[in-house]
Amino acid sequence: MNTYTRLARLALLVTCGAALSLTGFAATPSGTTTVTSVAPQTGPSKAVPETIDASKLSNAWDKTFPEDTRVSHHKVTFHNRYGITLVADMYVPKTHKPGEKLAAIAVAGPYGAVKEQVSGRYAQEMAARGFLTIAFDPSFTGESGGAPRNVSSPDINTEDFLAAVDFLSNTKDVNPDQIGILGICGWGGFAINAAAADPRIKATATSTMYDMSRVIADGYFDKGKTPAELQAYRKGLRQQISAQRTADYKNGTYAMAGGVPTTVTDDMPQFVKDYHDYYQTKLGYHPRSFGSTTGATLSSVLDFANMPITVYAEEIETPVLLIHGEKAHSRYFSEDIYKRLKGTNKELVIIPGAVHTDLYYKMDVIPFDKLARFFQDNLK
């Protein structure tokens, strides 16, 4: 054990010991100390039993995209380290042979969407090209567990990707050394964070990426804003959300941020109209999607404003493919991450003429051939 490891373990033991001394005992009025009802931890912490039985979930086709007869699909469940059970659709190519171990891809996004919308479309198409894939509902959303509902978190949502890797690493039809992830829209940022954290992820792709921490902390189109302007913006945001937390606690309910507008007006930015045309029409509406309905809990915003999710992007050593539309309002997120990535294992692909939401559903615009080659080359 090297010096760094010994010091890290010592720090952990000291910290944990202090925490146990605080939580395991309580002072009495006489000043003596009594043991509380919290039992001491005497062995490994056990995983919480999963709360959802995949066999009891419907496998009826309820997606916003057509079913592909080249692929089979069924529901699966897995858990993250916070004890939340996540539900996913697993897509497997019908060419898969018994005992064959496939390269696998975990797919999620966009922010506010569910697996029946965009991520499932990507996962199904990648399965048709030979990969085992899962498209999962994030914690607190869709068919996945967790309460209160429609919470989002920079920490827990990154953990959801890592939990998907845990699951795929233990799936009998998957080669655990050939696992990649694909994040769409806001989940592109979580994918970058996950790739920086977890060397088990051998290749990472993002499509029409948002950095949710950046856009919440700094607002849209932050280039050109002064440090003082950005700080003032965040101060106002913190004051608003902190006051809302007080009200939420008092009321016993959580205020919602609101989903994509159900109607459009002439003065709305074009990208908001584009979101409406996807989330609020037959094209992409789904009742379990908080993008289509309530939005996330408003108090979720505070965590993103204070916790940057791409801070260690420069330390990613595995291949990264960034895909974005030429006309997308969000293009700068991918371009800026690309500039920060090191080495030669990075690529930025700009799709001519495409706007942000074109990469949600337009099969003739999403570069699936490029995605397939990227994962074939790097998951081997």
From TrEMBL:
Q: Which residues form the signal peptide?
A: 1-26
Q: Does the keyword Signal apply?
A: yes
Domain Xaa-Pro dipeptidyl-peptidase-like intervals: 83-353
Q: Which UniProt keywords apply?
A: Hydrolase, Signal
- Gene3D superfamilies linked: 1.10.10.800, alpha/beta hydrolase
Is DNA-binding among this UniProt entry's keywords? no
Q: Name one GO molecular function term.
A: hydrolase activity
Family matches, as PANTHER family: SUPERFAMILY HYDROLASE, PUTATIVE (AFU_ORTHOLOGUE AFUA_2G16580)-RELATED
Question: Know the name of this protein?
Answer: Alpha/beta hydrolase
